Fold this sequence. Notes:
about 150 residues, about 5% strand, 10 helices, mainly alpha, single chain, two-stranded antiparallel sheet
Amino acid sequence: MNNTALGAENKKKQTIKFISEAHEKFYYEKLKEVRYQDVYHRALCYCLGISDDTRRNVESIYDFKTGCVKTECLHEGWQTSGSMKVIRMAFNLYCNGTPSVDDYTETEEQVNECRQYTVEDLFCCAYAPFFWQAMVNYILLQLGCLCSVKNIIS
Length: 154
């Protein structure tokens, strides 16, 4: 019989799965620039580092001095369907909502924007495994858990 109390002593350090070396480098560099080292900022930095497009355009997505997301970035010409999903996931984990909805005056436009934050829409792309990683990291950090994320994801 396994003793769970003894197992608790053998907690592994949390590991993070990155899509590339550039993603990992971006994550650690941007963590130094954010205002707080909390779960929200970690999720934001992780998500925004997933895509080459979001890494290149991070200054038009997030204001590191004020801590505000720049929702107008969703309307910029460099956006792709993938980069928009990455940004929406980042905004969702950072703000706990759909921050760009307020940018639209028409109710129908607001509803359409909300629909683009759904699990089905966000997770139907090549970045889905890394969105799962971001969410697991977010949850584990919220709980203060040091369990191995690798074992949960795999």
